[in-house]
Amino acid sequence: MSVYTVKFTPTAAQSIKRLPPDIKRRVKYKLEWLAEQIDIIRPVPLRGKFKGLYKLRVGNYRIIYEIDREEFLIIVHLVGHRREIYK
After folding, report:
1. CATH assignment of the domain containing 31
2. Which residue of 34, 49, 63, 73 is most buried, as measured by CB atoms within 10 A?
3. How far apart are CA 84 and CA 18, in angstroms?
């Protein structure tokens, strides 16, 4: 089992900056958990324009990410409220 590194796209980094402090903390914790558990869990794949990406739920917020298994990377593309993120 290997721990993955989490990287953020510029868009994801900006969206995280705009989150309330308590949500930021929860997102950070959930991403750390994901990096440690990625080999054990079954990621939730997305369809449509997000095909090839996965989602992770943090309350009413979603983290949209991709997995690079060769480089042991989790690349976060978007973070936002569920009612806005899929638009």
Report:
1. 3.30.2310.20
2. 63
3. 14
Dihedrals φ, ψ of 81, to 5°? -65, 145
Sheet holding 73-81, edge to edge: 5-8, 73-81, 61-68, 54-58, 44-45
Q: What is the per-residue pLDDT across 23-49, written as a single tens digit (0 to 9) for each? A: 999 999 999 999 999 989 999 999 999
Structural domain span for residue 40: 5-85
Q: What is the DSSP string of 1-70?
A: --PPEEEE-HHHHHHHHTS-HHHHHHHHHHHHHHHHHTTTS--EE--GGGTT-EEEEETTEEEEEEEETT
Give the containing element (helix H, strand E) for 84: helix 82-85
pTM equals 0.92
Over residues 59-83, the pLDDT tens digits come to: 999 999 999 999 999 999 999 999 9
